Amino acid sequence: MSDPLRHLPWDGASRPFTIGMRPIALADWIEVDARLGVYLDEKARLEAADLPTIFRAERGTGPAQQELLDILVGNLVAHQAETHRRDGDRIELPTAGRTIDLGADGPPLLTASRLVQEDICLMRRTDEGWRLAAAALAFPSSWRLADKIGRPMNAIHAPVPGFAGRMDQMVTRIFDNLAPSQPVERFNWSLYDDDRLHHPEPHPKSWRGTDGLIDPARVHVRVERQTLIKLPRSGDIAFTIRVHQGPATLLAGTRSGRLLADDLDGLDGPQRAYKGWSADADDLIALFRGGTAL
Ligand code: HEM
User: Fold this and answer.
1) Is the per-residue pLDDT at 173 higher than 70?
2) Distance from the CA of 88 to the center of ligand 1, in angstroms?
3) DSSP 180
4) How do residues 27-49 score in pLDDT, each as one tens digit?
5) How far is the CA of 105 from the centre of ligand 1 (A)?
6) What is the pLDDT of residue 11?
7) Over the chain, what is the mean pLDDT?
8) Which of 44, 68, 110, 209 could serve as a FRET partner for 271 with CA atoms 20 to 30 Å apart?
């Protein structure tokens, strides 16, 4: 099982607003940790409350959804035997206190998302680029599925500074050339003022106390570990997003905190504005460098 804070993306390997992808072993594709039950309970709560908020699929994606489910189940049984056990058509998750019926009615992608802490998007190649064709997305970081479903990568990333043009073209080429069944990973990180998993709202910044100073206890680091794997039969790509979170107080003043501060320092004006940090960046940099209350 993985340590919830093991992905410190400011170790120099992943810079914000860069592509930063590297191949990983199939055994490392999916990450399971001690909070599996917490994530799955929250997915179930969101699913019961309003399914279309967290799940959408275009017509014609059924076979690819099933292909993804089959690959995921095979991977979990092979590499996460401690937490995922197959018993006929059922997967038992003893550490989460759940059993998932693989034969249940409903979209296979939804069944897949009930097995893992990751969210899963299905990307499909069209003439206008790679499009978001289906998604089980319970834990978005400041975006809504309804706004992005069916749209190509350039439209999905329209608000992201620097994505249009070269980065878009490079990403399309990388997606086109992904080797089937060879997963790759990349990271994004952000700062929030709470540790809710379901976070569709824009980047928030109500982390200042009544004295106007940033309260370090209100700053939470949210890391997204993202993976891509090309499905060999359909040619679609499964894009997974796994949220890891931790309080800033754990990092402030440490080597990781200083590296994060350096990354923050390196963001340009549009990048800071996109993140909602224009007014706070200097104080956040001081917090992560020094580890003292501001
Ligand atoms: C290698 C591939 C990709 C790259 C390089 C990339 C890059 C980025 C970057 C730099 C951001 C802004 C990050 C930040 O907040 O720090 C972003 C945001 C985002 N990405 Fe990606 N991305 C990739 C794949 C995808 C895929 C496959 C999806 C499909 C759903 C996706 C959906 C989004 C969304 C919805 C946002 C938020 C956009 C908004 O603010 O409205 N990304 N991406």
Assistant:
1) yes
2) 37
3) B
4) 999 999 999 999 999 999 999 99
5) 31
6) 64
7) 93
8) 209
Site of tokens 């709470």: 194
Say if pTM beats, i.e. exceeds, 0.90. yes
How far out from the chain centre does Cα 239 lie? 9
150 sits in the region (left: phi over 0; alpha: psi -120 to 50; else beta) called: left
Ligand 1: which residue has its CA nearest to atom 2? 171
Maximum pairwise Cα distance, the chain: 59
For residues 84 and 100, is the Cβ–Cβ distance under 8 A?
A: no
Ligand 1 atom nearest 239 alpha carbon: 27
Q: What is the pLDDT of residues 109-133, one digit of tens each?
A: 999 999 999 999 999 999 999 999 9
Closest atom of ligand 1 relative to the 162 alpha carbon: 10
- The stretch 84-97 carries a mean pLDDT of 98
- Ligand 1 centre to CA of 72 (Å) is 23
Q: Which two tokens stand for residue 4?
A: 């919830």
Q: CB of 72 within 8 A of CB of 115?
A: yes
Taking CA atoms only, the protein residue closest to ligand 1 atom 5 is 19
Instruction: Tell me how far the alpha carbon of residue 87 lies from the centroid of ligand 1, in angstroms.
Output: 37
Nearest CA to ligand 1 atom 10: 17
Work out which ligand 1 atom sits closest to the CA atom of 237: 27
Q: Which amino acid is at 265?
A: D
pLDDT in tens, 220-239: 999 999 999 999 999 999 99
**Ligand 1 site residues, Cβ closer than 6 angstroms:** 16-17, 19, 21, 121, 123, 132, 142-143, 148, 156-157, 159-160, 171, 186, 188, 190, 239
Nearest residue (by CA) to ligand 1, atom 9, is 17
What pLDDT shows up at residue 292? 52
Beta bridge partners of 220: 192, 247
Task: Give the start-end residues of each E strand in the chain.
Answer: 22-23, 55-57, 85-87, 90-93, 98-101, 119-126, 129-136, 184-192, 220-230, 237-247
CA-CA-CA-CA torsion sign (276, 278, 283, 288): positive
